[in-house]
Design a protein that fits this description.
The chain is of the alpha/beta class. Helices cover 33% and strands 21% of the residues. The protein has two domains: 194 residues, c-terminal autoproteolytic domain of nucleoporin nup98 (2-Layer Sandwich), CATH 3.30.1610; 225 residues, Rossmann fold (3-Layer(aba) Sandwich). α7 crosses α9. The radius of gyration is 25 Å and the shape is elongated.
């Protein structure tokens, strides 16, 4: 991934002073998952370009280092090492942190001046949002140009690529350009590698001071930047209103540009600032926690002793089941060897007692191929798994689980597609209705669609099914997660 900033005019070599990077000496910066290189491909009095190049190690991502989102995101082929993603935004903070503050010592007057600057971003994730490029950048005074491509020249019927090469140009202060890029790259990259928590609200308001509150796409930018978290978006809007009423001053925004943001979505923040005991007590449990507790409760209520978790990932449900002595045999299955390796580590099986090791095992396997090891269990859990299957493989999955494995109880959860509208705060109304909650989902079901599939599958294979919602209930869209509990008819 590459970002270039070009300064045209007179004495443009002074760009080095503003960026605090010597034009004649390439520099290397170590990041959590790779390295950043700063160099100047062209230097002259009339035109100087600074380049920020990221080299992200895909193997390092798959190891699940602190700061990665985990949960299997980096276990498979993905675009993270090759596109201008949230990694680039983090690198801007890390490498150009002083420039963002605007401090330039003897060149302070130049730092405070609007300059003829052009920024070029290669391979920015856009995913059909090209109309938003102009709606986001043009109100900030930029001329916007972008280059699109075919997804694959050998298969033109696949249509346009999800990425663009973006160029923006304006007479603008360098610090403002860097702040705009720092915020807006994560807006277009919806698969962030860091935890989106309350500190991201502080960061957004700090970097957005002076331009975000009045931006016509404020809702879109805020919603996307904060990963559509309803509570965080509401916090940001409340504070932006306070900013408007107080004449533009953002309160409690201490700068911390050099630090990588801490980690994403529903996973626990491993590097966030610790909360007080009172705050931890008052904090609502995450959707993931509610989901796992609901599944564990359904398994317990079924009376099952031998349980298999199909698609166990890093073992979050397995860890919860181990705490209940009712479950005498627990098996975790995943197609990813790396996920199983992390589950083994998180469950501390190397240091576990003999009694614990006798109760649990981890095996590699696929949910769409018949496997004799899946049989003879009292209950099976399938938690947020089926939406990752291609629809054409659903029939195979149904036979593997309901016909061949045929446990007495099956507890299955999947996202409620309707609830995505609650998460869509800040999204443009022209977004396609087919937009999924996560980019690695192959499909998602509404409540009616899930009920129709579950009831038809249950009837076909001799089960009865009951339904339950998990998470906050919206009067229109229901709950974010829907769960079906299948019981084998006697």
């Amino acid at each position: 991934m590459l970002l270039t900033i070009t300064y045209t005019g007179q004495n443009t070599t002074d760009l080095g002073y503003l960026l605090h990077k010597n034009p004649y000496r390439p520099q290397v910066f170590e990041l959590n998952h790779g390295r950043a290189f700063v160099f100047y491909p062209e230097v002259s009095d009339a035109r100087t370009t600074a380049a920020l190049l990221l080299d992200i190690d895909p193997i390092d991502l798959a190891r699940g280092k602190v700061g990665s989102s985990g949960g299997g995101l980096f276990d498979y082929v993905n675009d993270r090492p090759y596109v201008s993603s949230s990694f680039l935004s983090t690198a801007i903070s890390r490498v150009y942190g002083t420039a963002i503050t605007g401090r330039a010592d003897r060149h302070q007057a130049l730092s405070d001046s609007a300059l003829n600057l052009t920024a070029a971003i290669t391979m920015l994730p856009c995913r059909g949002d090209t109309q938003m490029l102009r709606r986001v950048f043009e109100p900030l005074g930029y001329e916007v140009a972008y280059e699109t491509f075919l997804a694959d020249e050998m298969f033109p019927e696949w249509g346009a690529s999800s990425y663009v090469n973006l160029t923006i140009r304006a007479k603008v202060r360098l610090r403002d350009l860097l702040k705009h890029l720092n915020v807006l790259i994560p807006v277009f990259d919806r698969q962030k590698h860091y935890w989106v928590g309350a500190d991201e609200v502080d960061k957004l308001l700090r970097l957005g001071e002076g331009w975000l509150a009045d931006h016509p796409e404020r809702d879109y930018i805020t919603g996307r930047y904060l990963n559509r978290s309803r509570s965080l978006v509401n916090q940001a809007f409340d504070r932006l209103s306070t900013v408007d009423q107080s004449g533009g001053e953002v309160l409690s925004a201490e700068p911390d540009f050099a630090a990588d943001a801490p980690a994403a979505a529903e996973l626990p923040a491993t590097t966030a600032t610790p909360d007080s005991a009172a705050e931890r007590k008052e904090r609502k449990p995450s959707l993931n926690t509610l989901r796992l507790e609901s599944v564990a409760a359904a398994l317990k209520e079924s009376g099952a002793k031998r349980v298999i978790d199909l698609g166990c990932g890093e073992g979050n449900l397995l860890r919860l089941l181990l705490q209940n002595r009712q479950f005498t045999q627990i098996t975790g299955v995943d197609v990813s060897h790396l996920a199983l390796k992390r589950a083994h580590s998180r469950l501390r099986l190397d240091r576990a007692s003999d009694s614990v090791r006798e109760r649990i095992q981890l095996i590699q396997g696929s949910l769409t191929y018949r496997d004799s090891r899946f049989g003879s269990y009292d209950a099976a859990a399938v938690v947020e798994v089926i939406e990752h299957l291609d629809p054409s493989r659903l029939a195979a999955f149904e036979r593997v689980l309901f016909e061949f494995a045929k446990p007495l109880t099956i507890v299955l959860t999947t996202p409620n597609k309707e609830y995505n509208s609650v998460y869509e705060l800040g999204l443009d109304s022209s977004q396609p209705e087919e937009e999924l909650r996560h980019s690695d989902h192959r499909f998602e079901w509404t409540r009616v669609e899930f009920r129709q599939w579950a009831e038809a599958t249950a009837a076909k294979h001799g089960y009865e099914v009951q339904f339950q919602g998990i998470g906050d209930t919206d009067p229109t869209y229901g709950t974010p997660t829907q769960m079906g509990v299948f019981s084998l008819c006697e």
